[in-house]
């Protein structure tokens, strides 16, 4: 198949190059590469967000990225991007007419709007060309986690889901939300986020740089999260209840800029007031090639995020053999088997986090068992190869079958 992946606000190239980046970039880069390995030809269409980007880049055999001009050549926030979706859709329609795909697959609601609009006007794209929509996140789910309400986005997500030929979500929670919007469950496929189990492995070295090495042989707890709204506050407060351990938070701007970052300064002040500043480290972003070594230097992975649509950090930690502690939200509910690969908590209250972490630290046998089970689960269920194969099956089901095409030809003949 010729597959068009539409990702208006995210480029797969940062993930392809191993740079620190968002979960969606990792998803698109990984799925496109593995779809190409299955024999398909993939073109990713993204908004040009930098002056020096070429019009087209090759990302490996069978995968190309095309950058379409729509708005300014710098990174925009989600709702800023939506202001240029009409322009992006027009440019996309032109390219789809020049290189007509067999399947159009959009990631995110603005990409879904662009794909539906472009498909209407692109020459060569017919009603038989299926449009598949992936929602990494739904605002209805975000609201339940206490994130801001975006009523216009809720309406648009329902409309996009209703018009797409198939919908993919990362978790059963998202399928439940779409069912509440009136979308039949049969139209929705749960295809989880994945992990590169060739890169994130149990075997291998550990980070040895000064700040990454253990301090005083303390147990190390690690979290990959955002500095604002990612649960970092609760993690720092939880460290008061785990006096024997250190916490490494992988987040924020580069270390040289941390002193100027408002959220980083707020967290550092919180750690100082709590009396744990000597046991808490903010690293800034870490290259993906370095992440496995850093994860393997830790004893426990923890996520206190109130909402996690990807669960990528959890999966990468599991693949490296770490037991995990996470709040039971979003993709974590499908990734973590409570009592088998880690611990799922109803809330990210510092008391609950502290109790769970303290319990795991005191039980090395349990940590080891969780780590072994987590690595096995990552390898058996969440490889990008399997994610790509399941995505391919969604495409196949969405495309008109041969007997339907023959019937249509027969109708035309009459």
TrEMBL record:
The keyword Transmembrane helix does not apply. Residues 25-198 form the Glycosyltransferase subfamily 4-like N-terminal domain. It comes from the Bacteria. Residues 214-374 form the Glycosyl transferase family domain. Keywords: Glycosyltransferase, Transferase. Gene3D superfamilies: Glycogen Phosphorylase B (3.40.50.2000). PANTHER family: GLYCOSYL TRANSFERASE GROUP 1, GLYCOSYLTRANSFERASE. This is Glycosyltransferase family 1 protein. It comes from Nocardiopsis rhodophaea.
